[in-house]
Amino acid sequence: MSKQLFNLPRNHVNRQHSACRCDNRKSIRVSTYGKKKLGAPYGRLEFDEALMAELPDGHELENLLLASAANDNLALTLQLWGDVYSGDIFVLLVNDEEVGARIRVEDDDQPSLQLILPAPHREGNYIISYTHYLDGTTPKPGPTQLFTVLLTPPGGDSPPPLYVTADIRLGLTKDKLEPRGGKNYLATEVHNYSHEMQGDTFAGQINGEKVTVLVETDTGKTLLLFAEDDIVRFEELSRTRSPQNTMLEFNYTITSLTGLSSNDPVPLALEVLIAAAIPDLKEPSLSAKVDPIGEKDARNNLEIIIPAHTGDNKILPGDTIIVSMGEFNFPPTPIPDDQENKEFSLTLMFRNIYLEWERASAGANTVIATAFSYTIMRDTLKVGTSGEMSVGFNLFMVGGRPDLDSQLPRTPHPQLWRPTLMGNNAHGIPNYITETEMNAKLPATLWIPGFDVNDQPIFAANDHVKISYDGEVVVDEQVDPADLDSDKMFSFTLDGETIYSHGLGPMLLDASVTRVVAGGANNTSYMDYTVVAVENVEDLPAKPGTGTYTPATGDPNFSLEADVYTTAWLLEHELTLTIAAYDGMAEGDIINVYGEQYQNFDHNDGEGDAEHLVDGDFHADHVVKNTEVGSSAVIDLPVARILKPNTRSHLHVTVTVTRDGKESRPNSDTPLIKISSRS
């Protein structure tokens, strides 16, 4: 199809007759139009419509060649009307240059002729015209026309990829689709598409197969809209091939009016979960039946209960669950085997609960309402999120932040001082009662500092203090408001009858403080225990024990400063092991000290084999510092652990060195450390 440059009838001409020319003619052909005499045939060249692109109304171009005809000779037809006679010559011009053969009019009544535009046709815009030579000599120009050849694929060598306008980092779900005319679509954008040609048409592709897409350009962008029905169809097909495969590739092709198709862009790969999404997950609940929840319930294996799921789209084996508490997300957890779609529970770590409460409350004595929900994940894709349930927490702790590394309800508070016992004696050693004092049933005084390690007051009016001696509660009192003073020790009396009834040996002092917090919950902070020695003083050694380790020979040089270490001595001194410089000692070496504890002072003391006291075994390690290389390293041994068996015993000590994950052979000579916990 062609378009005229001028708004004139196709048979209208402008050229007048030439008198001299008419005299030489054997015959004169006269045509009339509106009772006017016509001149030369200044008509337009007609292109073969079968080889030209069909242009929509309002298109800027005309005479656009189909790409398939780029190597064809084009016959351009010129209708002859007006005064054209045999012997006239017509010549085709391209950009004012003569091309092709000159065509001679053979007959005065010839209706038309064809001018040949030779191949090949290279990409570009051309001006096509012709010259009419009267009698073969006098040139008269014909009208100009445009001719366009486009051979570059639409979008160029690398068409721009598709981008998704929604946030689909966690996968494409139904809520990411956009409504259009009562249906839902995935909106994708062809970034930086240059609109090289009006009339380009787009075809969508999902996994390489053609689908129909809607095209929007009225936003100043080129949007391709993929229908939800097509997406679901390919998603379900993908799942039948591989249950774990939810990846779909979205792409497009452009076809120009010339019939050229674009090269393949880089496909847009999306994790798709629309058909298998789980939209109806029920809200969870918590195992604690109190609101607000205090520190005790938060520590005591608090569980979130995931209800049974009865919706059409099921939770599948291999799915994982992420529990959310406020702004905190617990790590992904595999759903227990055979529990998919059934009720099950998960234990919530106290550390995470406390940190979220602390973030929301800034550690103040207040109840914070916290929302709990859960999300089901399939591979890395979020397939559904439950409704929320809300419960209050108040985890305020006397002394500040508690120990967060333990799930046990009974955890010593790192900010609180341990209690101290002062006996009614002359030696003045804290946490020590002689056998004489015990037999005399003399009372002792228990002290608890009233301030924490940051010199901040610990206690408040009506705080409840509880102290146990060897498991027996000996103090159970409220703090007197008159005694509140940050630089004062709180004192309590331990009666002599209680001391006498428990006898000799190491005794443990346990202490705690309880405060009623906002919301009515009782939160209890525990202090670390104190070991009290009740024994004779005559076994106290003069100096602490030391030892050396010389890997040059592979055996330790371990010298003991005392034959027997008593509880009282160990409570007043640090028991250390000194490792002398060894060959090749280097920064970062890990020195390992292993202790195995056995009944009695040695294996031959008593009848039969010495009993292995597992509760008294220990492992201590030390990382060698740069300043210790070539000198020595001092390792503290865990006294409380060593005293735990509460009996006469001895320790076998073994030393090794670990470097680059490899541990040396142990020393062959295992020295003995003798412990006298009871007389």
Descriptive account of the structure:
This protein folds into five domains: 19-149, Immunoglobulin-like; 162-271, Immunoglobulin-like (Sandwich), CATH 2.60.40; 285-393, Immunoglobulin-like (Sandwich), CATH 2.60.40; 420-534, Immunoglobulin-like (Sandwich), CATH 2.60.40; 548-676, Immunoglobulin-like (Sandwich), CATH 2.60.40. 9% of the residues lie in helices and 36% in strands. It is built from eight helices and 45 strands. Strands 21, 22, 23, 25, 26 and 27 form a six-stranded antiparallel sheet that branches. Strands 38, 40, 41, 43, 44 and 45 form a six-stranded mixed sheet that branches. The longest helix is centred in the middle third of the chain and has 14 residues, at 228-241. It is elongated and about 155 Å long.
Radius of gyration, rounded? Answer: 49 Å
Strand content: 35-45%
Number of domains: 5
Taking the alpha carbons of the first and last residues, their distance comes to: 118 Å
Can you give the mean pLDDT?
79
Count of individual beta strands: 45
Named at the architecture level, the CATH assignment of the largest domain is: Sandwich
- Helix/strand class: mainly beta
CATH class of the largest domain: Mainly Beta
How does the major sheet shape up?
Answer: 6 strands, antiparallel
Are there runs of 5+ residues with pLDDT below 50, and where? 1-40, 538-561
Percent helix, as a range, is under 10%
Based on CA inertia axes, which overall geometry fits? elongated
